[in-house]
Amino acid sequence: MRARMATGGILLLIGLLAACESGEHLEYVIEHEGAAVGRLEVTLHPIAADSSRQTITMKGRAELAAFGETIELRRHDRLDIDPRSERVLSAERRTRMGGDLDLRASLTVTGDSVHVTAINGTALSVAVAADLILDDGLHFGWLLDRLADGPDTVRYRTVDLERGAVHRVTAPLGDDPGEVQ
């Protein structure tokens, strides 16, 4: 499944950066094989008065056909970020499929550690490091910084919130998509 956004990449980036400062509500259509199957709503709440925290909520809903039935998939994410550094401070994810499956995961940054509780209950603690990316899915400041450095390939580690694991990612710059190792 891929999500198609109504605006071009440059305009989207400019819009997101402006929205991050003012607080805004954004909506996207989720498409599968060219047909709209759902929507995603992103709310960028106003930055806290002391400029230390901003909350981002994402609510998505999609209906997908599988095995002759239509399955409803709902996801609700809440992220708290430091708007100055664009670093994730905490994240909560709830995924519901149909009426039977209700999965939850969370991430919290305390000092120099990242603590994750995955959907299966796995607990993981990882030391914060320069190559560990905690991405909010909107800003990508870490990627822009690395692109400015001019390497042919970007390498980093990322936390898989749902599985409670750390993945090494290698992303070649250019037309080829990155691969997870």
Characteristic terms for this protein:
single chain, 181 residues, mainly beta, nine-stranded antiparallel beta sheet, four-stranded mixed beta sheet, 2 helices, 13 strands, disordered N terminus
Structure in words:
This protein is mainly β and 181 residues long. The protein is built from 2 helices and 13 strands. It has helices at 9-22, 141-149; strands spanning 2-4, 24-32, 35-44, 54-66, 69-82, 87-97, 101-110, 113-117, 123-127, 132-133, 153-160, 165-172, 179-180. Strands 1-2-3-4-5-6-7-8-9 form a 9-stranded antiparallel beta sheet. Strands 10-11-12-13 form a 4-stranded mixed beta sheet. The chain is globular and about 45 Å long. Residues 1-15 and 17-22 have low confidence and may be disordered.
Multimeric organization: single chain
Mean pLDDT, nearest integer? Answer: 77
How do the helices and strands follow one another from N- to C-terminus? EHEEEEEEEEEHEEE
Stretches where pLDDT is under 50 for at least 5 consecutive residues are 1-15, 17-22
Q: What is the helix tally?
A: 2
The shape, in one word, is: globular
Proportion of helical residues:
10-25%
Main beta sheet strand tally, sense and closure: 9 strands, antiparallel
Q: Which structural class matches the secondary elements?
A: mainly beta
Strand neighbour order, sheet with most strands:
1-2-3-4-5-6-7-8-9
Rg, rounded, reads 17 Å
Task: Map the helices and strands.
Elements: E1 2-4, H1 9-22, E2 24-32, E3 35-44, E4 54-66, E5 69-82, E6 87-97, E7 101-110, E8 113-117, E9 123-127, E10 132-133, H2 141-149, E11 153-160, E12 165-172, E13 179-180
Parallel strand pairs: 10-11
Antiparallel strand pairs: 1-2, 2-3, 3-4, 4-5, 5-6, 6-7, 7-8, 8-9, 11-12, 12-13
